[in-house]
Amino acid sequence: MATISGVGLSWRSNLSQIPSSNPSPSPSPSSRRRVFSPIKMAVSVDKKNFTLQKSEEIFNAAKFVLLSSPPSPKALSRPSRRCSGSIRLFWSSSSRHSWPQLFLDHALSGYCKSSSSQQKDLHSPLVADSSCFVEELMPGGVNSPVRAFKSVGGQPIVIDSVKGSHMRDVDGNEYIDYVGSWGPAIIGHADDEVLASLAETMKKGTSFGAPCVLENVLAEMVISAVPSIEMVRFVNSGTEACMGVLRLARAFTSRPKIIKFEGCYHGHADPFLVKAGSGVATLGLPDSPGVPRAATIDTLTSPFNCLSTVENLFETHKGEIAGVILEPVVGNSGFIAPKPDFLNALRQITKENDALLIFDEVMTGFRLAYGGAQEYFGITPDLTTLGKIIGGGLPVGAYGGRREIMEMVAPAGPMYQAGTLSGNPLAMTAGIQTLKRLKELGSYEYLDKITGELIQGIVDAGKRAGHKFCGMYISGMFGFFFTEGPVYNFEDAKKSDTAKFARFHRGMLEEGVYFAPSQFEAGFTSLAHTSEDIQQTIAAAEKVFRQI
Ligand SMILES: Cc1ncc(COP(=O)(O)O)c(C=O)c1O
């Protein structure tokens, strides 16, 4: 049975995920830390080729011009312009060494001293504008809602490059990153071996639209790692994986209804946008407009960790429930662990009712343990969804499970599901390299150690400063709330002082630490995070807790 220890509430099941005969950690990640090097990647803008390296040269030159030729008071008193095709650099008010918009405009016009067409050519990838430009291009200025900093206020950081445990923004500020691209970066960002393998694969092409060896290699690795998976289907995102698994559960059981938990997020497909977590929770959105009633009528919900509600639902809808889907450890309402017997009880009740138990391990897969939450807790579901880590930072998702169920999937069976880029060689390559690294002995022990130190340090600092505060972690996944806790479900999570969290988030950003810009998201560490990163983060938290 699992036990809880310390402030970190580190759940340890009796099933050790790493043979205890080798307690030594993997080679120190500090040896893997590298100085940032510019990403040399061709980018096409207005049919002209640019490189990110070029952008960086321009940016640095702009700073130089600014220093040698400061803007006139008149220039500084100019009212902010709408974007006009000249270069607009993003100015983040949160950046520690950022440059006000007008300074940069001035600096760049000095640097460019060129025709307007040349200036347009220089409309390079680091162009962004906090006040008007970005939001005019994309809804909210982003391609996924939580990135927009809506719940913590201020402007989002525009990232230029990532390496190891660090991110660097377009202003040149560095941050210790605890978002990890929302989970995939578990061995650290832009790992050299992953990049080298991708370069090799790329020589052979980027997409075949036909079977390839690499997808078989990754399938083999996933099947041998994840206890419930006997067959797997790769898709391109976690959302797709959850859509596929829902159709499969309904097809296999010939039943329409599904139970999901409040605050759990299973991607943005219609049937799951009911009391969902992640961006839906962060933005406080009700069920999204555009989702027809018919799409959600068969979605039943229960508070997480509340077995009696699940029992009642099975009683009320006898013979109609295809399955129960959940994040075995919730990461989309903040971090919420299951009560000791909860997963086991769900396994029992689904079996008794001939329904399927589905673990959405898009976040927890290969993160809590090599075999995911199901290995960590010793509970085997019927079906599992994966994403994030198995793509090593490239777009991927997967669903898998018992052979007799998976054989329902087309073309082996009648349940249709397909994907143009599914199993594409690049995502497979990055996934294979990432899993190889994770499989090295000591990986999860290292994650557990540094994450434990991090959460213990932050919780202690928060309490010392007099805040109502609690934090939890398992392996490389963690969360904290501005409430005394305990936090067992989304209702408990909502008791957190989110205004205080916003101030904390902003303060930490100023100190060079990047946490998820939402109270309702989990945090992630990686093998590239060093003790130095952790200590620096705790010291920053200590300072920020006293200010908020
Ligand atoms: C548990 C879980 N399921 C599904 C998804 C959706 O995955 P994606 O964003 O790749 O569509 C997420 C995304 O964060 C997730 O955390």
TrEMBL record:
<dbReference type="InterPro" id="IPR005814">
    <property type="entry name" value="Aminotrans_3"/>
</dbReference>
<dbReference type="GO" id="GO:0015995">
    <property type="term" value="P:chlorophyll biosynthetic process"/>
</dbReference>
<protein>
    <recommendedName>
        <fullName>glutamate-1-semialdehyde 2,1-aminomutase</fullName>
        <ecNumber>5.4.3.8</ecNumber>
    </recommendedName>
</protein>
<dbReference type="GO" id="GO:0030170">
    <property type="term" value="F:pyridoxal phosphate binding"/>
</dbReference>
<dbReference type="GO" id="GO:0008483">
    <property type="term" value="F:transaminase activity"/>
</dbReference>
<comment type="pathway">
    <text>Porphyrin-containing compound metabolism; protoporphyrin-IX biosynthesis; 5-aminolevulinate from L-glutamyl-tRNA(Glu): step 2/2.</text>
</comment>
<dbReference type="InterPro" id="IPR015424">
    <property type="entry name" value="PyrdxlP-dep_Trfase"/>
</dbReference>
<dbReference type="InterPro" id="IPR015421">
    <property type="entry name" value="PyrdxlP-dep_Trfase_major"/>
</dbReference>
<keyword id="KW-0413">Isomerase</keyword>
<keyword id="KW-0663">Pyridoxal phosphate</keyword>
<keyword id="KW-0627">Porphyrin biosynthesis</keyword>
<dbReference type="InterPro" id="IPR049704">
    <property type="entry name" value="Aminotrans_3_PPA_site"/>
</dbReference>
<dbReference type="GO" id="GO:0042286">
    <property type="term" value="F:glutamate-1-semialdehyde 2,1-aminomutase activity"/>
</dbReference>
<comment type="pathway">
    <text>Porphyrin-containing compound metabolism; chlorophyll biosynthesis.</text>
</comment>
<comment type="similarity">
    <text>Belongs to the class-III pyridoxal-phosphate-dependent aminotransferase family. HemL subfamily.</text>
</comment>
<comment type="subunit">
    <text>Homodimer.</text>
</comment>
<dbReference type="InterPro" id="IPR015422">
    <property type="entry name" value="PyrdxlP-dep_Trfase_small"/>
</dbReference>
<dbReference type="GO" id="GO:0009507">
    <property type="term" value="C:chloroplast"/>
</dbReference>
<dbReference type="GO" id="GO:0006782">
    <property type="term" value="P:protoporphyrinogen IX biosynthetic process"/>
</dbReference>
<dbReference type="Pfam" id="PF00202">
    <property type="entry name" value="Aminotran_3"/>
</dbReference>
<dbReference type="InterPro" id="IPR004639">
    <property type="entry name" value="4pyrrol_synth_GluAld_NH2Trfase"/>
</dbReference>
